[in-house]
Structures are given as structure tokens and as C-alpha cells.
Amino acid sequence: NRTDLTLECRVMPYGTQFLMIVRDVTQQRKLEKMRKHFISNVSHELRTPLTVLRGYLEMLDDELPDPAIWIRAHQMMSEQAIRMDNLVNQLLVLARIEAAPVISAQEEIDVPKLMDILEHEVRQLASNKELTFCFKVDECLWMRGSIEQMRSAFTNLVHNAVKYCNQPGHIEVSWQCDSQCGRFAVTDSGPGILPKHLLRLTERFYRVDKDRSRDTGGAGLGLSIVKHALQHHRSELSIDSEFGKGSCFSFIIPDDLMLHKDHE
Ligand code: ADP
């Protein structure tokens, strides 16, 4: 009685009779569809900046070398090149994380140090924005896992808060002990997200506001990277958001992956 199955049916002669083979290809078709969708998204995301680049190159062929036009063209072309570079980097990170074994690397991760670097980085990044920051980091709380994956998870969430937060705005980042587990949370006073989008945010290439997100250079891969990185650490992204007020992206790292450096 199921209507969600795709079946492939083959009939072949079998002696004086016929043999009918029915195969359930639902999963296979679903994967093919996802693969096609993925390739079409990647092509689209790469073609958009390439079209802008080609447009400017053609314009520079025609125009007399007016310095103002050159300056504008140079700026636009650099932005598009950075955008393509970011996209390719994110695709590589995602591919590496997806291909990694489910039990991720068991490196000792000095999370407070990662937080310190991240804090310097975002303060620089947001130096021309009206944003205030508060980092609350438990200096004794380390964890085990993959440094590359966890760095991606922390960085993407904090960078998103900076990208999407309205100005003037406030961003709070915390890494604290919660009943022997480690809890990471980024809270922003940004635009918030409507409930209908929440469940889809970690899908590859999903963006709430494509135009705004494109302005910020995002291709909709960041949260997908976070989701996969957390899965490898038996954790899950939780998103609480109130439209017009702000959002909180958080996750909990299980106690057996935690290292409490003060107890050593
Ligand atoms: P992107 O590269 O577009 O930022 P992400 O996967 O990181 O992709 O995020 C997916 C979408 O989720 C974004 O396009 C944005 O619409 C929304 N989003 C992510 N973080 C925030 C946030 N802190 N506040 C509001 N919207 C957010």
C-alpha cells in the first residue's frame, strides 16, 4: 500500500515460463536526485560570479581606461574571485568531513585557545560594524575530537552571527561546562529566523534570504558543514530563534569527549 516506493521491474524468459524481478530502487533514485541537485547548485553558484567577472572583462575591453571604471571593476572582480574561492574551500571542507570515518580523530583540542583566536578574528572582521561581543569561555574545558572539524563548527557559527546580526547589535559566545558535558552557544541580537526555515537550515545550499546571503558571500554550506562536524562528535545543532529578535545556535559535546584540564 506504500506510495513512496520506486520499483524497477524486469521480465525475462525462464525456460518455458517468465521470471519477473522486482527491485526496490527508492534509495538509489533518491541519491541520484540528490547528486543531480547538488551538481546543479554547485554549477549555479560558480556560474554567477563567473558571469559577473566575464561582464567586467568585456566592459574593460570596450571602455577607455577611465580610472574610476578600472577601480570599480577591480573591486567587483576581486569580490567575485573571493566568493568563488570561499565556495570551493567550503565544498572541500564538506567533502572531507563527509568522507571522514564516523569515529572522528581523537586529538586533544584546546578549545579555549581556539576561542581566543576566533575572538581576535571576529573583532577584526567586525571592526567596521557596530557590534559588541562577549566571550564567556571556561579556560579548563578541552575536548577530544577532530580539530579541523570542530574549528569549522565554531567558526561557521560565530561568523554567521557577525554576518547576519543587525547593527547596532550584540553577540555572545559561550563555552561552558554543563553537567560534565561541554556546551557551546552563540547568541545574537540579529534578525531571527522564521520557524518554517528552521528545519531546513542545515541542508546544503539552503538560504533564508538568497539575496541578503549572497551579499555576504554565503552559499548556504556553512550550517551543513557544522551539522556533519557535530555528527562526528555525537552532537547535534540546536537552533532557537525568534523572528525580529535574534537567534541562539548551540550544541552539547558528550561528557566522554570532554577533558577537564584543571583535574589533571
Ligand atoms: P551561508 O553561507 O549562506 O551563511 P549557512 O549554511 O551558514 O549559509 O546558513 C544558512 C542560512 O541560515 C543563511 O543563509 C541565513 O539565511 C541563515 N542564518 C544562519 N545563521 C544565521 C543567524 N545567526 N541569524 C540569522 N540567520 C542566519
Automatic annotation (TrEMBL):
A GO molecular-function annotation: protein histidine kinase activity
Domain Histidine kinase as annotated: residue spans: 41-257
Record's catalysed reaction(s): ATP + protein L-histidine = ADP + protein N-phospho-L-histidine
EC number: 2.7.13.3
Portion of the full sequence shown: 171 to 434 of 434
Name used for this protein in its record: Phosphate regulon sensor protein PhoR
Taxonomic path: Bacteria, Pseudomonadati, Pseudomonadota, Gammaproteobacteria, Celerinatantimonadaceae
Cell compartment(s), UniProt: Cell membrane
Described purpose of this protein according to its UniProt entry: Member of the two-component regulatory system PhoR/PhoB involved in the phosphate regulon genes expression. PhoR may function as a membrane-associated protein kinase that phosphorylates PhoB in response to environmental signals.
KW Nucleotide-binding (keyword) present: yes
Primary gene name: phoR
Chief subcellular location: membrane
Keywords: ATP-binding, Cell membrane, Kinase, Membrane, Nucleotide-binding, Phosphate transport, Phosphoprotein, Transferase, Transmembrane, Transmembrane helix, Transport, Two-component regulatory system
